[in-house]
Amino acid sequence: MTVKKYGWIMLAVLLVLIATVLIVGFQVRNQQLELEKAGSVRLIVQGQEFVIPVSQLDRGEFFGETVSGKGEAISNSYRGVEVRTLLQEREYNPDRVTGMTATAADQYSAEYSGDEIREAGRVYLAVAMNDQKIEGMEPDQSGVMVIVFGDSNSKRIIRNLVKLEIR
Predict the structure, then answer these.
(1) Is there a single domain that holds both residue 20 and residue 44?
(2) Which of 29-43, 64-78, 79-93, 146-160 has the lowest mean pLDDT?
(3) Could you give the maximum distance between any two Cα atoms of the chain, in Å?
(4) Judgement on whether residues 137 and 158 belong to the same structural domain of the protein
(5) Do residues 18 and 32 share a domain?
(6) 28 and 52 in one domain?
(7) For residue range 36-57, what is the model confidence (pLDDT) as tens digits?
(8) 126 and 65 assigned to the same domain
(9) Poorest-pLDDT segment among 22-26, 85-89, 101-105, 109-113
């Protein structure tokens, strides 16, 4: 009889453990979905991956000119953060960067040289332009743009950024 009780107790403990794992897993997944809804960027540096919510990219204001597809210079004000700063915060020396690939939600991507990343005031992640939040792919989603000042190729401005890979 005691063996049966022991078996039932072990079964109950096992069921409680399974339920706990399922509940925790469900909560973690919900948090990930909320981050995705709010917008986030995956930063990959030396094989390490960081998920950065858009809200953490809103650090300060910066100004500059970009060139439109027609070759016209356009001055704008932005809110966001310089890529160099993100790397330094993750204890990665920007002087070691040999290049960067930025990928949008629609899988469009662009390449940037190490020289561009290393140059102060050149490559930024913007979350707002001219006091307007940058919209993501979905109506309630926040978006991020890669801005390269002094770049004559407007095709390298990435909208709806989802991933940055640093080499």
Answers:
(1) no
(2) 29-43
(3) 87
(4) yes
(5) yes
(6) no
(7) 545 789 999 988 999 999 889 9
(8) yes
(9) 22-26
- Which own/partner pairs from 109-118 qualify as long-range (CB within 8 Å, at least 24 positions apart)? 109/158, 110/146, 110/155, 110/156, 110/158, 111/156, 112/146, 112/148, 112/156, 114/167, 116/148, 116/151, 117/83, 117/84, 117/87, 117/166, 118/84, 118/94
DSSP state of 107: S
Distance, in Å, from the CA atom of 147 to the CA atom of 161, rounded to the nearest integer, reads 11
**CA distances from residue 35 to 28, 42, 54, 164 in whole angstroms, order as listed:** 11, 11, 9, 17
Q: Is 130 left (phi over 0), alpha (psi -120 to 50) or beta?
A: left
Q: What is the pLDDT of residues 58-69, one digit of tens each?
A: 999 999 988 877
Question: Domain range spanning residue 100?
Answer: 40-166
Cα pseudo-dihedral 105, 111, 115, 116, rounded to 10: -50
Alpha-carbon 50 to chain mean position = 8
Number of structural domains (the chain) is: 2
Amino acid at 142: S
Q: Please give the single-letter amino acid code of residue 79.
A: R
Same domain, 53 and 123: yes
* Residue with tokens 């030396």, as numbered in its chain: 46
